[in-house]
Amino acid sequence: MKKMLCLLLGLLSQANFAQEHYAGINTSQRGGIINAGVNPAELVNLNARYDIHVISISAKASNSELGFSDLVGGGDFADKLFTGNTAVDLRMDAQITGPGIAWNSQRWAFAFTTKGHAKLDLVDVDANLGDALTNSAIDSYLSGSSVIANSNNQRLAGTSWGEVAFSAATILFEDATHKLNLGASVKLLFPGSYANFGANEFSGTVHNEFGEVSLTNAQANLNIAYSGNLGDDFSQFGDYASSLFGKPNGVAADIGVNYRLKDAEEGHYKLNVGVAVKNIGSMKFKSNDNSDTNYVLSVQGTDTLGLNQFQGAQSLREIESLLLASGFLNKTVAERKSFKVTLPTVLTAYADLKIVPQFYVTAFAQLKMRKDEENTQIAGQNVFSLTPRFTTRTIEVYLPMSSSEFSGFATGLGFRAYGFFIGSGSVITALLSDAKQADAYIGYGFQFD
Fold first, then answer.
1. What's the Cα-to-Cα distance from 181 to each of 29, 149, 174, 280, rounded to whole Å?
2. What is the distance between the alpha carbons of residues 419 and 447, in angstroms, rounded to a whole number?
3. Alpha carbons 365 and 406: distance in angstroms, whole number
4. Tell me: the pLDDT tens digits for 78-127?
5. What is the chain's alpha carbon radius of gyration, rounded to the nearest angstrom?
6. Which has the closest alpha carbon to 320: 300, 297, 299, 289?
């Protein structure tokens, strides 16, 4: 179990991670495939007839406990994560936007894009329970008991998948002053790997007798599910990266509208506003090697479940086997070889306002539309940001400032030169304060008529 959690936090130390992907550049005046990822209606705002996206990579993370000094200060992150008494939340994911093309055709625009996703989440994990499962070795000099009662569904989940999308947008109305657009994307999903450990309505008492940790008087509804590489090993990032694309088995959609108040200067605007609903859909993991089972964990009377045995576990399959061997686990729903996982549906809204020539300010909001506690739900996060930017046709500099659901305020910096861009939504606060989030992205594409 500790090795599984160390993967989540080890990744945090290897990259600068944030709130939404491509913070700042995703509402750039240049337009293109990155903008269409926020709202497909933006496709008809291309500044050239063709937009070729070569590749871009974005990695992001935010959490409720660890600060930037914890990430760069060395030591075992899992030992630090569960030191408090509050519930722990962590969201982290990486996105690779592969080769894609978008093109204008009079009042229409179209795009063909590819993406890969890898995501890991901790959802509402009780700090005392997490400490018992990960830190018994360093707590070997302690002795005591903790009573845990959490009515929520505590989750450790990982997912990887790919997508191929076809997008279309059209101009609904346009005159010398106004422009109104509608766009949609249809995505073919390629589920790769999945793992979920959910403990709903957990109650019990954790005893630590000088490093020997045990659980008594415990009750919980468990869900243990895994598919692909994550069933065998949760502790290697390569298991996510090597399984971004499985077989096609799912469909999702984005839909959005966009309005522009035009500027007298050709190619510019006074106001650009958009609203979109993204990731409407799900994908099915189906294989004879899959497992999705619901259990009841019950440790009653004088019975005791030793927790030290889970210290070296690095897969859900191994944890499940240990729990079954203990005799305290009983099935409530038979094992399923096929199960659906729901994408993190979000509502996005933004407004980009011209202040003076070449200086704009963008307000952005992302609101999740589903509950993270569901075992088959890929978790999301609420984000609000404000981004001042200086922009010309070839150069752009921007300063994203955001507040995310679990990690609070962050400020970053980004830069674009022609089709090359690089940035972060949190690098400034990461360097100047003990921010609880980090991110970075880089990419390149080009446009031509």
1. 16, 50, 9, 20
2. 8
3. 15
4. 666 677 677 888 887 889 999 999 999 889 999 999 999 988 888 988 87
5. 23
6. 297
Range of the domain at 6: 2-448
Burial class (CB in 10 A: 0-12, 13-18, 19+), 171: middle
Contact 374, 354 (CB under 8 A): no
CB atoms within 10 A of CB 305: 21
Check: CB of residue 19 under 8 Å from CB of residue 432: no
Q: Position of tokens 């030290």?
A: 308
- The answer to whether the CB of 314 falls within 8 A of the CB of 3 is yes
Q: Angle CA(359)–CA(362)–CA(365) in degrees, nearest 5? A: 175
Taking the C-alpha atoms of residue 43 and residue 173, their distance in angstroms, rounded to an integer, is: 15
> Which residues make beta-bridge pairs with 444?
55, 420
Calpha distance 206→138 (Å, rounded): 16
Dig out the tokens for 200 from the structure: 């709903």
Give counts: helices (H), strands (E), the chain: 8, 22
Q: Could you give the CA distance from residue 192 to residue 194 in angstroms, rounded to a whole number?
A: 7
Region of residue 217 (phi > 0: left; psi between -120 and 50: alpha; otherwise: beta): left
Beta pairing class for 291-299 and 329-336: antiparallel
Q: Would you say 31 and 48 are in contact if contact means Cβ atoms under 8 Å apart?
A: no
Q: Terminus-to-terminus CA distance in the chain, angstroms?
A: 54
pTM for the structure as a whole: 0.87
Domain CATH for 379? 2.40.160
Residue 379 corresponds to which amino acid? Answer: A
What mean pLDDT comes out for the span 288-300? 92
**Alpha carbon separation from 212 to 135, 228, 304, 327, 415 (Å, rounded):** 11, 34, 12, 20, 52
CB neighbour burial string for 130-165, b if at least 16 within 10 angstroms, e if fewer: bbbbbbbeebeeeeeebebebebbbbbbbbbbbbbb
Q: Can you tell me the distance from the alpha carbon of 436 to that of 438, in angstroms, rounded to the nearest whole number?
A: 7
Domains held by the chain: number = 1
Mean pLDDT of 180-191: 97
Provide the token pair at 304.
Answer: 């005791």
List pLDDT tens digits, range 187-206: 999 998 899 999 999 999 98
As a whole number of angstroms, the distance between CA 300 and CA 305 comes to 10
Write out the DSSP string of 337-382: SEEEEE---EEEEEEEEEEETTEEEEEEEEEE-S-TTSTTB-----
Phi, psi (degrees; rounded to nearest 5) at 131 = -65, -40
Q: Do residues 381 and 91 make contact, with C-beta atoms less than 8 angstroms apart?
A: yes
Amino acid at 7: L
